[in-house]
Amino acid sequence: MDAEGPRGWGSPLHAAVLEATAVGPGTTVLDLGCGSGLFARAATDRGARVTGVDVDPAAVARAAIEVPEGVFAVRDAEDPPAGPFDVVTAVQLLTHVADPVAVLATAAGVGAVVAATVWGREEECDIRVFGEALAPWLGPPRPHGNPPPVTEPSRLRAVAAQAGLGVERLDDVVCPFDYADEEELLGSVFESALGQAVGRRAGPVALRSAVLQRLEPYRTAAGGYRLANVFRVLVARPL
Ligand SMILES: C[S@@+](CC[C@H](N)C(=O)[O-])C[C@H]1O[C@@H](n2cnc3c(N)ncnc32)[C@H](O)[C@@H]1O
């Protein structure tokens, strides 16, 4: 539901990518689908020289502010700068593109190492409970088509192989979404596009009550909420 998540949720994922690809001082990194630059920030903080591309001009503008040391451009992931780069990353990009094989094949053409991350399966991600809370006001869930989504490890491996990559490792990383209290939790729901759509249909009182009821098992002793979500980190090299 709230794929953006609370600020900072991606830190364990970013650290896992940077560790697995040995990014350090002087490493050249091309970040495909850089979004607002949080991964680029983490890479730069390790001393990397980061180039980021994204099709969304607003995201590229935010990334340039987040990482003044970086170089950012509005470009498609299938049309990146020539490189070569030590590491090419696609952090949470593959489920947003029409052709993940083409994106990884492009990455393989300009990078010595390629890293891609995706969500785990729905049942591995507590964030699904937001959708369950809103389900009474939503249509039936869309069935998974064929081929299966890249969140399936076997499919992700197959996509990498089709792109001409040899998989070195495929790791699971847990990233908790932490909300300090009810207000922060409900704020994230009411700010999301889906929450706003349901709010218009159900009214804010019913929406609030449905969310708090479904999220009750995820309450922490401190009065906040913690949702644990699995992500996969694929690291591969051109064959
Ligand atoms: C879920 S966001 C991830 C952003 C960032 N990598 C992160 O982890 O915070 C997906 C990003 O991919 C970008 N995107 C989608 N299709 C793209 C494409 N074909 N080429 C480049 N960027 C693309 C979107 O604009 C968006 O910023």
The appropriate CATH architecture is 3-Layer(aba) Sandwich
Domain count? 1
- How large is the radius of gyration? 19 Å
Determine the mean pLDDT: 94
Shape field: globular
Query: Structural class from helices and strands?
Result: alpha/beta
**Ligand types:** S-adenosylmethionine
Largest sheet: 7 strands, mixed
What is the share of helical residues?
25-40%
CATH level 1 name: Alpha Beta
**What is the number of beta strands?**
7
CATH topology: Rossmann fold
Number of helices: 9
CATH superfamily: Vaccinia Virus protein VP39
Low-confidence stretches: none
Order of helices and strands: HEHEHEEHEHHEHHHE
Please outline the helices and strands.
Layout: H1 11-20, E1 28-32, H2 38-45, E2 49-54, H3 57-66, E3 71-74, E4 85-91, H4 100-110, E5 111-119, H5 128-134, H6 153-162, E6 165-179, H7 182-191, H8 193-202, H9 204-215, E7 225-238
Parallel strand pairs: 1-2, 1-4, 2-3, 4-5
Antiparallel strand pairs: 5-7, 6-7
This protein binds S-adenosylmethionine (SAM).
Word description of this protein:
By secondary structure, the chain is of the alpha/beta class. It has one domain (11-238): 3-Layer(aba) Sandwich (Rossmann fold). It is built from nine helices and seven strands, in the order αβαβαββαβααβαααβ. A seven-stranded mixed β-sheet has the order 3-2-1-4-5-7-6, sandwiched between helices. β2 (49-54), α3 (57-66) and β3 form a beta-alpha-beta unit. α1 (11-20) crosses α2 (38-45) and α5 (128-134) packs across α9. The longest helix is centred in the C-terminal third of the chain and has 12 residues, at 204-215. The relative contact order is 0.17.
